[in-house]
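Subject: Protein record for review, amino acid sequence with backbone structure tokens
Concerning: The relation between a protein's sequence and the shape of its backbone.
How to read it: Take the token row as a discrete description of the fold.
Enclosed: The protein record, placed directly beneath this head.
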Amino acid sequence: MAPPPEPRRPYKRPAISDQQRRRELALQAQSSRRADAQARARALASSLLTTQTPAAATSRREEEGEAEEEHDHTVADVAAAAAKLRGSDARRWFARQIMLPEWMVDAPPHLASDWHVFARPSGKRCLVVSSNGITISRVRNGSILHRFPSALPNGSKRDISGPASSYSILDCIFHEPDETYYIIDMICWRGYSLYDCTAEFRFFWVNSKLTETSAGDPPSTYHRYRFSVVPIYECNLEGLQAAYSGSTPYVKDGLMFYNKHAHYQAGITPLALVWKDDACSQYVIDTDSKGDIPSEQHLVLELQEDGKLITSDDPPVVFGSLKSEFIQKSNLRPGNLLRFSVRDESVKLVDGKMQISELQFVGKPNRARAFADSHSKVSADMKTR
């Protein structure tokens, strides 16, 4: 006699979303990236400060001698290589040094216990480095935004303390209306790397260390721009309401969510998320050069050698391909960023991933653009239309 059939489960387990799957993988991968965080921070600081030619940098190193340790050569090599980059290569390299969020497609589990939230200031995202009596800020395309004295450690000639090589690197947004750098993250402080520290610890250091300086004071002769921290909240009901509806000294551009356990990961990561709607941002939907909303959704993809069109995700998502005849006729090259229009009826959702059956080539995006759109950005744009 056959055994009775097993009773059916009273409910079906909800499917894990694609974004949640990538969040779990990103947390697991952190432990395998514990390379020399100090060397990474030094390489970034050297690259941000480099304003001379590679030849000049090489000459200076020769004058100082070649008795440096192996990782010091790596730092010098990275700085020199970054100085050689031009055009789209430079924009892409500098943009990849910043921790960039995915767009929030779904609410992560354990949101209240595992995530922070804050209202993102509107303005120019940049990295700020202070060292050897000067402070330099660079926007995502690598261009210098400001070169100025500041009250950050070693940020002005009047305030040089500790080793000459001591430096600090802050992830900021420059808010032009009040000429303030709002600090949203900290990468390094007085030469101590925070790459492999959790977001919860980094936010604690931002608040505690900034109070040790006068960087939050109004501008003065040796302190050209004011620095300020953004209020960080727990992702409970009270914190979400404060970030979403509370008043801020700056213009809001959406909400930023950081996983408390996330290390500072350069590039796009699902452990940082951005949410925008018309109540907390002026820039919910992409607009054209005149500020008008296009009748069709646009997205930017990167062209590969085999003609495939991919997003900026790691690993990338393929959204289509171009024929070799069209690529040659249009004088396109691998690595080019291309803008396409998408009709709503050509979009489908399969296993949590968006699929687009038809892309209409529009042209190349603005030259300042460094990345293709992420899968989450495309998904969020489609939902807002």
